[in-house]
Design brief:
This protein has 7 helices and 10 strands. It is of the alpha/beta class and 218 residues long.
Length: 218
């Protein structure tokens, strides 16, 4: 079975379409979406529509990003301000009907609730943001701190990483993928297309470490 990890989409539904055409997954591939499907981009609703379709066709794992977590905080606890500050207004706008009503389908809410915090395979750990760089992978998983899985960034500046498996993550946009023995980051800032050297949606095929990227398409 081939593993294909897909980076942060952030409402860029047309870019997701383009990337899926490029990677052309087969029936034996396992698609691992690294989280941050929503916010900031123009069509968060369209992204989740597509992900639900992929789940019917392919073997998929959907990880939770910090933006999905912010959406749940808004839906469950009314935490609007932090959600809105982080691009949530674009998400809510994508769910507006012609009558000016906001309707998030229950199927979409259930999709977000059912996202996973991480996926472990024999050689890799897939997680949205990363792991603590002062702990082994096993220690990180034993502690199982959602804040780390969803928000961590300090590993990106660590000189060395005591990880016994390669961590594959997104969350922190890069001009190009990070490809180190212990760390792969595939967030190449698709939604940040106005920034120099960003504006790409990236996937990586594993264990080959073959990267595929498409530019922002909307």
């Amino acid at each position: 079975m081939g593993l294909i990890a897909i980076g942060d989409i952030h409402g860029c539904a047309r870019s997701l379409d383009g990337l899926m055409r490029e990677i052309d997954p087969g029936e034996d591939d396992h698609l691992i979406f690294i989280g941050d499907y929503i916010d900031r981009g123009p069509d968060s609703k369209g992204v989740i529509d597509r992900l639900l379709e992929y789940a019917e066709k392919y073997h998929c794992t959907f990880l939770r990003g910090n933006h999905e977590d912010l959406l749940l905080g808004y839906l469950d606890d009314g935490d609007y301000d932090i959600f809105a500050m982080n691009g949530g207004i674009a998400t809510l706008s994508s769910y507006m009907t012609e009558d000016g009503e906001m309707e998030i389908p229950e199927e979409h809410i259930n999709f977000v609730r059912n996202t996973k915090l991480y996926l472990e395979t024999e050689d890799f750990i897939f997680v949205h943001a990363g792991l603590r760089p002062d702990m082994s992978v096993a220690e990180n998983l034993l502690e199982a701190n959602p804040e780390v899985f969803l928000w961590e960034r300090s590993h990106l500046k660590a000189f060395s990483l005591p990880w016994e498996k390669t961590v594959v993550c997104g969350h922190t946009p890069q001009a190009e993928p990070i490809d180190r023995p212990e760390l792969i980051n595939i967030d190449t800032g698709c939604v940040y297309y106005a920034y120099p050297s960003m504006g790409y949606l990236t996937a990586v095929r594993l264990p080959e470490r073959e990267y595929v990227a498409v530019p922002y398409m909307g």
